[in-house]
Batch of 4 targets.
Target 1
Amino acid sequence: MSLNDTISAIATPLGYSGIGIVRMSGSQSISVAKKIFQPPQDRKINWKSSFTIHYGWIINPKTGEYVDEVLLTLMRAPKTYTREDIVEINCHGGSVSLRKILNLTLKWGARLAEPGEFTKRAFLNGRIDLTQAESVLDIVQAKTEKGLEAALNQLEGGLSKKINFLEEEIIKLLSDFEAEIDFAYEDIKFLSPKEAKKHLYKILVDINSLLEMNQMDKIYREGVKVVITGKPNVGKSTLLNALLQRERAIVTPIPGTTRDTIEEMINIKGFPLRIIDTAGLKKTKNAVEKEALERTYLKLEEADITLLMLDGSLPLNGEDNYLFKKIKKRETLAVINKIDLPQRIDKEKVVSLFPEEKIIEISAKEEINLQKLIQKVANLMLKEIVPSFSDSRITVNLRQKKILEKVKKNINRALQGIDKNLPRELISFELREGLKRLGEITGKEINEKILNNIFSHFCIGK
């Protein structure tokens, strides 16, 4: 990849839409646009202008063929997304016109952009740091409003500020240690071991707080896992369809219809919930059913919240009792289904096993009390699953988490060095290593291989 190249890509999904965009960035963007764009005869374009939109046509300069009627947007460096000259061609959203326009830009001076190269250039040209660059992908992939809010906060520098603060704290401490090394025999007051440890403990608290925020990132990316379980024919698939408001799972009166897990995403209170319908739990010798049960048990282990469905129209039996022992009670809601039918379930037994706030009676088929169930799921999620962060809009992804864990080890080794009265040079080494690693989060310290890996997950037009 060369920053001297002018790059081009389709910036909108291929398909049928009202508008499609071909984007160019680089020093030759406007030169290429001049070759393929034709305004109406009575209009002249000031090609030196910036943030202007011009009506006209894209043509093939060799044949004079008209390709599409477009709006051409000119954006002059440095006040652009990449800090380079940018041209955006807004055409009709058909895949044929988009590809023909893209091919013309490639033929007349641009090259095809690599995945994420526009955002990569924004980073390399100093407009954003690496955490902000990563947040661009989070914005594109946000599943809910809260996920979008967190990503936008990252783009505004929310995590960067936290990392910069940590760097400043380490630099202050490192400066004192190195001054003590250089001016050990001068009449200067340095931090005592007790004071130095106090500063290091404060840094550890801040690092631990950031590490906890990885859980929020996981929730925004993967969703809170809500597993629907129960014995066969209790109404699990009917509940899934009712929550989704569409027929996603096959529903029949025959027990055991669901043989595999079915996963769908819904939005509750701004958080993505991954609803997982599982096979009914029962004893079986059938090989296929055994495999389905193994998958159900695996999903139960992974569940953040379990909806244990009970058939209110039937007495509790051994299969129900087995489930009572199998599940994790803390994150479970007991869902008594089929209240539209005469009730035969032993409710006293259910009440003895679950607190009242974790029991809900519904009819999935008639959609009775579904909103109450959703509210109970939301309450449980916000109380037990989603941590109460001081700023839940800040998230830490897996790459950043791994780096912070290494920084934490550096700080802990510095603390041990003070306790063991090791030379200040060894303690300073750990602090410098920690400082260098923090720079990997924001991109101050980064190698090409890691950078390419990060941006490879982006779409080509971004």
Target 2
Amino acid sequence: MTTPDEQAERVKALALEAGFSVVRVTRADEPWEAGERLKRFVGEGRHGDMAWMEDTLERRAHPTHMWPDAKSAVVVGLDYGPEHDPLEILDRRDEAAISVYAQNKDYHDVLKKRLKRFAGAFHRETGAEVKVFVDTAPLMEKPLAHKSGLGWQGKHTNLVSRTHGSWLFLGVMLTAAELAPDAPETDHCGSCRACLDICPTNAFPAPYQIDARRCISYLTIENKGPIPLEFRKPMGNRIYGCDDCLAVCPWNKFAQASSEAAFHPREALTGPKLAELATLDDAAFREFFRGSPIKRVGRDRFVRNVLIALGNSDDRALADKAVALLDDPSELVRGAAIWALAQLDRVRFDAEKTQRAGIEASPDVRLEWRSA
């Protein structure tokens, strides 16, 4: 009969054979503080409109709430390190800044297939029950990764690895098997505040705390309504997610560009022109982002984000793109088009307001005309 140490070594070998970059093991049935931290986060309303987080709060509180028989958690990481500094595009205001993780295939699909292959191999060898999770499930991967020694949660609350910096996708296999755990990772942030200081919307109330309602990733992806006025200018040309706090981390000096072809950026998504993205209708949006995580936000929210970036471009020639969307069926798009036009061409904005504001049916869009 194999020992917990031997089983842990075997499970790590299988994970690496399945193509994961790193793997560590921790107990899944021990007490931890992560559940209480999450309850405070939700209790303070910092989760914003992510109602699913509140709805699944009890299941998220501890791994055994997901599966009472879980004894061990095998945490795997898949490297998606970029070839270039993600912050460089922020100076090219006529181009769209898309978060590194979303520039090619949906990582959920890549990780889930690999996790199933890895977990299946472990189950066949040992007979132990297993369940696999990526971040669409109510399981707290980052605290588990910290506890397993794979990395630590930095002051920006994201995982940091000494070998891969900020650029790891996480997956978890829970198992009823008793596996020898690895030692937790210690915090290596020290006195560094780079991730806190670079945030354009001041989304960190304090080190190791985040208010999602102020985070550009939340605003461009999870937020279903208009972008709050105070965040529109700070968004710059970020139209899907934000990498600032990740990209600035000094530990990235040890990271390397990912060798995973599915995560190499599509040429069409490395600095696409805002003028072209603004013209996408629903069918064109779905086709352009087929297989991409961006597809899940839908065309209207996506074009809303593009229009905010248009308004921040300082390129008056792009005003035509905003005008063309003033009659869009989506009030979310119309409202953002009004703001963009007001930033780019005030004379034209005044002329369009005279013609349109009085006949606009949506209260939210009428408010945009009044406040722009």
Target 3
Amino acid sequence: MDWNALFNTSTVATALRIALILLLSLFAGWLLRRAARLIERRLEQRERDAERIARLKTLVSMSRSAVHVVVLIIAALMVLQALAIDIAPLLASLGVASLALSLGAQAVIRDVIGGVLILIEDQYRVGDVIRLGEASGTVERITLRTTHLRDLEGRLHVVPNGDVRTVANLTAGWSRAVVDLSLSYNADMSRVLPALEAAAARVAADEAVKDDLLEAPQVQGWVGLRDWSVQVRLLARTLPGKQWGVMMAMRRYAVEALQAEGIEVGLPAWPPASEPGGRPGP
């Protein structure tokens, strides 16, 4: 073995350069892990929502892994260059492969970017009731690529995050319980409104729903007209996701109050006068 050739200046310099590159890549990996842990600790100190903390930690971990992969690729290229290996053809091949991959995975990349924005902006969370385009339901799961919604009929909708443009969140911060009632044109509104006010008071005193209310139910008269009825409305602001139970109570007490006053509920004529068999009224 030629020890002189093994330990000549050029060989030692190359070895030292490779060792330095490896040490710097290891240091970069340690620095990334330490920075990720520091960010996670600050999140735990500032955030109180365990679910949001978990989602942000996932985002931090994903970002650290992506940066670490980039560091390793750069270190590998520098090692090849230190060994006097021409990396230009390799870079050209990587460029062509990256272009092909990016063209073939545009939809996936768009979905991942959309998922990152949803996590950062906290647009909705697991358990929220939302509407995404034609799909609506309860959010069961959020990943970087998709959002999983379960509708009232039990169907699971998997929506790509890249397709999320407009979000209607029905349980963000607070919710609104809205009940519309259709009454006959012959109904005496001077009796309707007091009856509905009494129904609203009963809702506010109901032990089953009063803790879900953020304000007392309100009565709005003459909110709409139809060919066959007048519409009146009861509404109340509730805790997130509690509007449906409040709406059930509002409907029940409102119908009971109207029935007690002998007030008719408006019903459409059947069959309509415009259809065969239907006769115009007198």
Target 4
Amino acid sequence: MDGWLLVSMGILIFFGLAAIYSVALSQEGSDFLTVKKQAIALVIGLVCFFLFSSTSYLFFRSQAFFLYLLGILFLIGVLWFGTTIRGTTGWFDLGWFSFQPIEYMKVALTAALAAYYQQQAKRFLGGKELFKSILLILPPVILALLQPDLGSALLLCGLWFTLSLFAGMRRKQVFLLLLTGIVVGVISWFFFLADYQQARILTFLDPSLDPLGQGYNVTQAMIGIGAGGWFGSGLGFGSQSQLKFIPESQTDFIFAVIAEELGFVGVCVLLGAFALLFYRLFVIARRCRDAFGQYLLLAIGSVLFLQFVVNVGMNIGLLPVTGLGLPLVSYGGSSLVFYLGMMGLVQSVAIRSHT
């Protein structure tokens, strides 16, 4: 296995568990249920990690279409039988554990797109090939929007766009797609986006429009980040997080908790772990001589990088709040399990490309 990739994963998971534990301290009479659930998810995720790493990644190429269809069925099923949390119908409540199908879809779509683009690796994408890839991405995006989960839908679109660029999309196609995106964005604003989604975008442009409502989260997160100083206030001693000024402190705004309690030094270690993770993905992809393996790593890297940038960006007020957590760090059993599964696929490529 790639040792440095394991190191970066371990650091990120440790930071996440420490921050989740710290937030649990602020809850009166806390039984640390969130910490226990995350620990259980970690055990399940590690099983998936070792299972995937011991399996040839080429197996997922042969099963990509099946995995994709299963993901579509999950996304359809959750609209009918799912549990609604904070306005999004995106979870299957299994009693002791909640399953979020969109997290599974991220893994399935990386395999499906990698398998599709592998066939186009030696030529420019024609209009027909690009249209087929759009048909592949459209169903999960529409189903995510119906939940509604705008953040995940945009993440899937970003994944597709990144892979399409590397697969050989022409400048004319890029221009037409950007133009189409602008038109769709305008139409969505007036006919499809919910009021709270519009409010998030407007508040991002001007947080003072609703300082005690939609703008409250970002404002408090930025105060927490600024209060961290060089070394932070210490785990369990952050005023913003412990006094519950930062909402969703274990998920969307866990970066602000880490910045406040571990300070600039802690944030540098966290960002350094992410930088090491992305660097090792790049090194393994260069070493891989199989087109499917390269596209698979590119897809996984794109999902991780886009979600990382969006989460940190919304914590510091550079991007609108989308509800996307910090990969391998934020609280969320489904997210942790499937991201560890992705890391298992990366290790599978690393093991079988090692010379």
